[in-house]
Amino acid sequence: MGSLLLLSNCKPESTPSPAQTGTLTDRDGKVYNTIKIGNQWWMTEDLKTTTYQNGDPIVYKDSTTVLWLDTAPGYCFVDTTSWAIGMLYNWYAVSDARKIAPVGWHIPTDDEWKTLEMYLGMSSADADKVNFRGTDEGDKLKREKAANQIVGSWDDANNVYIIWPNNQSGFSALAGSCRMFFGSFGDQGIGATEFWWSASEHTGSNEVWYRYLDYNKSNIFRFYGDKRYGFSVRCVKD
Questions:
Q1: pLDDT at 18 (0 to 100)
Q2: pLDDT > 90? residue 117
Q3: Exposed e or buried b for every residue in 16-48, given b needs 16+ CB within 10 A?
Q4: Rounded Cα distance, 234 and 89, in Å
């Protein structure tokens, strides 16, 4: 009888539910993978569109300084003319009324980024801070190391005692660097950093909230920057 009672109290180990995934197609015909993280649906790739929703082309800006010093909407390639990672857009393109996000999707607000971060384990108090915040939420966003690396794969970190990219969230972030407002690319370059715009302007300045991941950090950087920067874009579902 005792053994029967013992067996009746045993519960099978639960297995995690598989992630909900999908795809979306932008106006250019490019297909993106998507994933549900908490109650939000996110693209698992950076935006690559070169047109607005109405079909107007987004202006391509090359490496000359003068083109990045103005306030005209524009984009550039991350890696010369590679489509592997995504495009870098200034905030004037991101905020343009013609919309660069695919239909049914939008640029995440600062609060929507916080929702993602807190779902991954960041406290609400940390989420409201600036600079690097949280613990390992950044590693949960980064695409993990693989045998066959692609453009934008994360560099090896200097501190070998810390566990690095694990992509626990399925967000699959790559490291596409950024474009400075004076025309040059970020110092550390592809493989070391990744920057994304939010849709939220910073109160009291003419700058915009963004997120930044670093190959040598496990947490997530939050601050505001010049609208002329070239950053990547992730979209969240309406």
A1: 79
A2: yes
A3: eeeeeeeebebbeebebebbebeeebbbbbbbb
A4: 11
- Exposure pattern of 169-208 as b/e (b: 16+ CB <10 Å)? bbbbbbbbbbbbbebebbeeebbbbbbbbbbbbbeeeeeb
Residues 6+ positions from 218 with CB-CB distance below 8 Å: 135, 136, 137, 138, 139, 162, 163, 164
For the record, the structure tokens of 192 come out as 């070391």
Which residues is 220 bridged to in the sheet? 133
Is residue 161 helix, strand or coil? coil
Which amino acid is residue 113, in one-letter code? W
Cross-strand pairs, 35: 21, 42
Dist. CA 103–CA 208, nearest whole Å: 23
pLDDT at position 199: 98
- Is the model's pTM score more than 0.85? yes
Per-residue pLDDT at 11: 46
d(CA 208, CA 154): 26
Q: Give the integer Cα–Cα distance in Å for 207 and 227.
A: 6
Return the closest-CA partner of residue 198 out of 77, 98, 104, 109. Answer: 109
DSSP H helical ranges for 142-208? none
Rounded mean pLDDT of 17-25? 91
Residue 199 · residue 215 · CB < 8 Å: no
**Which has the minimum average pLDDT: 89-93, 125-129, 150-154, 181-185?**
181-185
Compute CA 50 distance to the chain's CA centroid, rounded to the nearest angstrom.
18
